[in-house]
Sequence to fold (193 residues):
Amino acid sequence: MPEFLGPIAGFGVTFATMFKKAETELYPEEKKPTEVRYHGRHQLNRYADGLEKCIGCELCAWACPADAIYVEGADNTETERFSPGERYGAVYQINYLRCIGCGLCVEACPTRALTMTNEYELAGDNRADLIYEKDALLAPLEPDMTAAPHAMAPGLSAEDYYRGTVTGHEATAESAAEPAVEPAAEPEAGSAR
Ligand code: SF4
Ligand code: SF4
Fold:
């Protein structure tokens, strides 16, 4: 190209863009769905009867490169059981001011307690509101679920839960009232949801 055309060629992109249809996204009035594997807000999952999958092991917190997760585990008791096995996550916080959505915490979780949803509207007008507590992260109760604490389903062990054999129908009012009797057990890595 001759040198004298250089300044004119520089406007080529400008002129070409002037005649293209504008791609204006009308967010937030019109929200586009994300890709299915988009890393959005986290979720702490439950078993089918409502017991929590989190065992308070802190592996997610240790895996997080942004130090965005804080976990305090505690022991389940005979009268107050939040998860199958020995321990549960008593305090669980994710700081969305720090989270970079990398998903390493999900990879580290041995019980598939932690997954990520497609929810991306994580904004606030103050810092405190962006530290999500356990109650904001726990999966909603579905019709067959009973909110923890309650006993494990009769006849099922913690291993049965980890293998995913529990169903919501086993969490009867009777089992919710009875103390838990199953011994504590460690989960297997990569166990079923
Ligand atoms: S997605 Fe990444 S940055 Fe966010 S909490 Fe998990 S490990 Fe930390
Ligand atoms: S790694 Fe999973 S089970 Fe362990 S504290 Fe985190 S969410 Fe809970």
User: Anything to note?
Assistant: DSSP finds seven helices and five strands in the chain. The longest helix spans residues 12-18. The two ends are 63 Å apart (CA to CA).
